[in-house]
Amino acid sequence: MASPTPYSRYRLPRGRHVLSREEVVANQRWRLIGAAADILVERGLTRVTARLIAQRASVSNSTFYEHFQSVDDILAVCSGVAAKSTGDVVATACANGNGERKVNVAMAAALALGTSERALMSTMGPAVAAALPSVAAQREALVRRIGSLLSDSRCQGAHKRPRAVDQLLIGATLAISADRLGPNESADPPVLGEELSALLR
């Protein structure tokens, strides 16, 4: 397994510094989100605790609860970040051109994000979605968003497909790729993008 991110390197210096209160809060929140995702991958859903997240993020337990109500809350936030990021990279690919080649590029972009941010993407995995209704809703919303994007004329060829078919295929593709891409497996996102987009043709 890949080495976890040492979030202590992002700890702010003690005493006076030039950062505003808003910047300090944002820094702490980012560290907590990253730590939660890493611990989820390392330990599994049932062994993620607020104390472990706070320790990894180099903040106090009380600071954790200043930002999040519970472990479920922070995992839902992580999943929301993952879903928005995935949707955004697909939207960018679709906005930059037309035709089936753009579908390949869109799929490759989503897979590249998944391989580079595996811990974050794991927070919208099936185990978390099964336990947390809010994450399940985010997954469903992502499937609808990507299905809609890939059904748009900017991101498809001459053959039209029912939008529901696209949504089902892209949902299955995201679930399969997220589950099978492990930390030590090599993957070529452009090649995988072309293979997976073949499902959509």
> What is the string of SSEs from the N terminus onward?
HHHHHHHHHH
Could you report the average pLDDT, rounded to the nearest whole number?
76
- Rg (CA only): 18 Å
- Assign the CATH architecture of the largest domain: Orthogonal Bundle
Question: Which band does the percent of strand residues land in?
Answer: under 5%
Range of helix content: 55-70%
- Give the biggest beta sheet: none
Provide a short characterization of the protein structure.
The chain is mainly α and 201 residues long.
Please describe what this structure looks like:
The chain is 68% helix and 0% strand. By secondary structure, the protein is mainly α. It folds into two domains: 7-68, Homeodomain-like (Arc Repressor Mutant, subunit A, Orthogonal Bundle), CATH 1.10.10.60; 72-200, Tetracycline Repressor, domain 2. It is elongated.
Observed structural traits:
single chain; 201 residues; mainly alpha; Arc Repressor Mutant, subunit A; Tetracycline Repressor, domain 2; 2 domains; 10 helices; elongated
Topology overview:
Layout: H1 21-43, H2 50-57, H3 61-67, H4 71-95, H5 100-116, H6 118-122, H7 126-131, H8 133-151, H9 163-180, H10 189-197
Helix pairs in contact: 1-2, 1-4, 2-3, 4-5, 4-8, 5-10, 8-9
